[in-house]
Amino acid sequence: GAHAVGLHEWLSRRAARVPRQPALSCDGTRWSYAELQQRIERMSAVLAEGGVTSGDRVGYLGFNDPMFVVAMFAASRLGAIFVPLNFRLSGPELAYVVGDAGIHTLVTGEEHIAVIDSVRDKLACARFIHRGGGSAGWEAADALMAQPLAAPPAVPASADDVAVIMYTSGTTGHPKGAMLTHGNFWANNLNEMLLWDMVSTDVTLNFAPMFHVGGLLCGSLSTLMAGGHLVLQRGFEVAAVMQAVAEHRVTVTFGVPAMLLFISQHPDFAQADLSSLRLVAVGGAPMPEPLLRLYAARGVPVHQGYGMTETASMITFLNPDRATDKLGSCGTPPLLTEIRIIDATGEAITEPGTAGEVCVRGANVMAGYWNQPQATAATFTRDGWFRSGDVGYRDAEGFLYICDRLKDMVISGGENIYPAEVESVLYDHPDIAEVAVIGAPDERWGERVVAVVAPKAGKSLTLEALQAFAETRLARYKLPRELRIVEALPRNPTGKVLKARLREQNRA
Ligand code: ATP
Known about the structure:
Helix content is about 30%, strand content about 25%. α12 links the parallel β13 (about 280) and β14 (about 300-310). α1 runs antiparallel to α2 and α2 (about 35-50) packs across α3 (about 65-75).
């Protein structure tokens, strides 16, 4: 097997080459590559002293923070598996994930001690470490790292060794842990470097939560591999994003559509200095076209990508040179990844324009779900393609268009309706701030289209007005039959609309 593909291996080599180059900044912290590497080695000594060895799981619960990065590479150095945890989960939800992953040592930011303590008696972890000082039953990372411990030798990693278990948000039942290998990260880094031209002068801003693929992978790790400067923001705050771009002369960043929507609606957007940005990747959810046009008009280079947890992120990306003529497409696969569209019987669809389930193959596809052989088997086709659960089609030139998720698709009177298409039209309405389209059970049609709308401040809307607005651009069967007005849409921590919750609320 190939060696030296491990996260900690390429990072330590990078640190040896450019020790003085800035590696990581967050709030007041600014570390060079040598300083980052030194912390990683100290933390690996701390973890090893507490009994962490090869194959053990090390959890991290907290906002984006240098300690997240340190804990991940330190665990990797010991051959251990890093498990980033979603800080929005409740105590019992966290207890489920911590138990499922069998976490040995749990590291948290101070903010999250209380939620862990609320379920402490249900957790079988050997050790609890937090960033700050003094709290009963917890050890302080700073004090531990100040000890004169010698770092154990780095454990070599093979491409197939699991590096990270990343839990899906669990919109259907319990969250599942996607096993992402060192080879998966290596492949995604190469995919990004070869498509995005990542170089050592890049400054990448990361404001998406790192327990999620968007935050961990879209630009962040490839920046460190390339020797660039990674700037972390603890959370997503619109004004702070624009400030950071100007202050650090940020060249690359990633956001989900909701984040780009909120940035564009901020009063400072028109004046902000965004001139340093050479690439803003957007993905994680369907991107409404009006929003793409708005950024294009402002001169900010926003390019759509398509990816997911199970594929260690990138599946396709739209190159800047095709941004205008392929607006709305999420592009073509990067160099190490292939896609195929299949019909309901599993046959490959080759005609352009015909929609089916998107399948993925490549070195970036996960090893499977942790402890879930059945779920793993169900998500791979017999010939080894990963089934994305998304519906899409390719045009004659092979450019992929994602229609929507299979499970969000509305079937009305036998016709398939993709909510993302209807949303894209409604986003052009001047009085709409946010909109989500869902299906509701309907006696006559099976399902009917429901628009859940948050109007702009001081505006009101009626169903008839919405239908009149949309009817010139949408077939009649796609028009909303019901309107629900809300103040804001429910979203997950990465900003995705929680459609399952909207459907439940609509039934209630
Ligand atoms: P879960 O799978 O548990 O519901 P999740 O939505 O957070 O969780 P992710 O892996 O974060 O899972 O997201 C992947 C999904 O996001 C894709 O399967 C797809 O539905 C959607 N997605 C990502 N990029 C795009 C895009 N460019 N256009 C449309 N949809 C996208």
